[in-house]
Amino acid sequence: MIKFLKRFYAVLILLFLYLPMITLVVLSFNSSKSRAKWGGFSFIWYRNLFHDSEIMKVLLTTLLVAFVSAVVACFIGTIAAIGMNKMKPFTRSALMGVTNIPMLNADIVTGISLMLLFLILKDKFGFRFGIVSILLSHITFNIPYVILSVMPRIKKMNPSNYEAALDLGATPVYAFFKVILPDIWPGVLSGFLMAFTMSLDDFIITYFTKGSGVDTLSTKIYAMVKKGVNPEMYALSTLIFVSVLILLILINTLPSGGKSKKAEK
Amino acid sequence: MSKHLIDLQNISKSFGNHLVLDEMNLYIRENEFLTLLGPSGCGKTTTLRIIGGFETPDVGRVIFDGEDITNLAPNKRQLNTVFQKYALFTHMTIAENIAFGLKIKKKSKSYIDDKIKYALKLVNLEDYGNRYPDSLSGGQQQRIAIARAIVNEPKVLLLDEPLGALDLKLRQDMQYELIRLKKELGITFIYVTHDQEEALTMSDTIVVMNQGYIQQIGTPEMIYNEPENAFVADFIGDSNIISSTMIQDKLVEILGVKFPCVDTGFGENKPVDVVIRPEDVEMINLLDDYENEMASAASSEDSWKKYGRIQGVVTHIIFKGVHYEMEVMANGFEWLVHSTQMFPVGQKVGINVDPFNIQIMNKPASEDEEAAPIEE
Amino acid sequence: MKSNKFIKLLSAPYIVWAVGFIIIPLIMVFYYGLSNRDKQFTFEYVLSIAKPEHFKSLYLALLLALVSTIVCILLAYPLALILSGLKSKNEHLVVFIFILPMWMNFLLRTYAWMTLLENNGVINSILNFLHLPNIQIINTPAAIVFGMVYNFLPFMILPLYNSINKIDKNVLNAARDLGANYFQTLFRVIIPLSVPGIISGITMVFVPSLTTFVVSEMLGGGKILLIGNVIEQEFTQNSNWYQGSGLSIVLMLFIIISMVITNIYDKDGEGNTL
Lengths: 265, 376, 274
Prior knowledge:
heterotrimer, B: alpha+beta, six-stranded mixed β-sheet, C: mainly alpha, MetI-like fold, 14 helices, 0% strand
């Protein structure tokens, strides 16, 4: 009985979380453009989607921003974390404090603060809002995620490894690539994935820093909300969700599969 | 002796496909210090958890003081547990930790205060009541865990590897502490450990377990001196376990050489395992050319006194403080020898064993009982 | 040490970045918030929070954020307990299932709720079909709370689950062993030990709820203004950066308060790991 209640409760919450997604998936197959009426099953929005050059352009922008910002954030964040580990405790916690700002501060404040910066740059140096300002913003809020996911790895690493490599005649750069990087690679990878999804999902900061003319999926959808969202978006989000799902299942099953094999031995 | 306090009847328990306990029967007497000893995965902790009520056996019954408590919830049982790694409540002070069980039982404040004072005194931590567990050392936390359990006046205290997280010196101190506590409280202790030394030091009774089976039950002396099988012999202390043949009563052939022994009743020409403790191997210095000497001397009945029954060469030696630990290669077997006398590497030696120190054991009947490799 | 020097240099690019894109922008918010168009120092815009229309939006935002945080705790705690009781084999999968919705664009998911909750939307159609009374929730504060709870519930589930799951099972066994029944164990041991998770869950739900303008815009029908909406409009419609920044400073004050509270209780920074 208690077991049943537990299951029932978990399912209820699941339903609450998944109901809108189910709605979107169902609507993506609805031949009627209306959200209230079911006009029959159809792939029309999927077909239209691939011929809609505007949505395709927005999708491309979104993916490009997510990928580039995640890569740059990984690079800057990883080397920063390595350096921070050797800092004096005071300097390190001061820098960690700064790192926490974009994570703990409200997105709207981060968004407007960057917007103000870009406005000044525009006034003084003729900087132009667009994909570059979006990228700069995304890198900014992605770096903390990378640092936080790499840091535990670095702390776990034996500090003597690097010194041992130097002792054995390696140059610092060689030691970095051959000793440090392989050790912390899983942290970098999960930092990358986190940064990529954060960037993909961001609306608020992009909204304030994009300027006119450039859109990501989020800002495009927001612009559509009042007039009614184009059902092609349902189709697109269904496709994105399914591919993320498959990707995540692969990531989650592969390493744990290896672990269970080890355990059997 | 006194009556059975706990009776485990025919207990079996599996986790998934893995059989952890197989038809186990065990009784525990009142006021006994009983230790469940064995390598990890032998079922000792599961046994303790079944007694504590944290696992329910698939088959079998747990009788406590004449009552069936197999399905009784842990909070209704008259016994308390000292857990691995202490399991103190980190959000409570030491005094609050100790008072936890008493508050649940709605005891009066003065009663609780008295009990806290008594328990802290008992474990020699009088002034620690207002501190938090995190500020205490491992050994101190361990004592608090014990204090927290005993204020509830359990009839039985279950201890699950309580000293496992402590360093060697502290562990030895705590062993004496536990023996003292046991005497003062006059209750039954059931103790789980994989450390044979701990078991030998503290217990009235040791239950050696392996792979879900009880291998031997007995006093520490019995377990050490008369192991019933190769697993017990190997697990308790160092030993030389040699596959041999029982020629007849009181005569065993070890590595092709006949040794007199004291055991009878194994039959004739039966394969057996022989256990010889390293400290029971006696060695005699031999000259380098002892072979010629032996050949020329008439092989009298007493030549073993001069040359040993088996001859070999010392291959390793380590100084261990009280004694030297040596390895001697003789008749294709590497003998482990403890002796206060030093024999340098390369020294040729003769080996004798007193008939009383040769322990004969039946070979394991089935694969199941074969000694498993010991995991640390 | 020469080797350490090289290693420390690796942080340099990030330090430059953090100064340029975190610290300077924040300073600019303060600069604009504390000055006016004539570049004169003034508290005018910060204090304008006392204006009835601003104060009302802040008050409503605080109220709705508080309500949705409490609802989130009440919904998430039992769930986190249930999840932590699972066999370790399934736990990753199950947690994964509860986190998964976060990977679908949250605007679209909120939009889907608009569809579902509309007065002639799907839910009311189903209620009609069952001859049950309709719900008229869309464009009300209740709908905004609903949307906040929906969007931020996973941020509550995760830290709660992490902190409950981290409790040594033997500590719970010890409580049982000492005579506590399930509810005594829950209230005297589990809940006190999961306080760090509760606190970090609260900040992770409260701050985005307090500052959102999207959920209120979509589910409140654009008529209910929260402080987030006011700030957004100052920037995007009125282009009054001074006013917007001034109110942002007020908003940050509340964020800092909740950060300070988090730091007091969550010393190991445990709950923050996603």
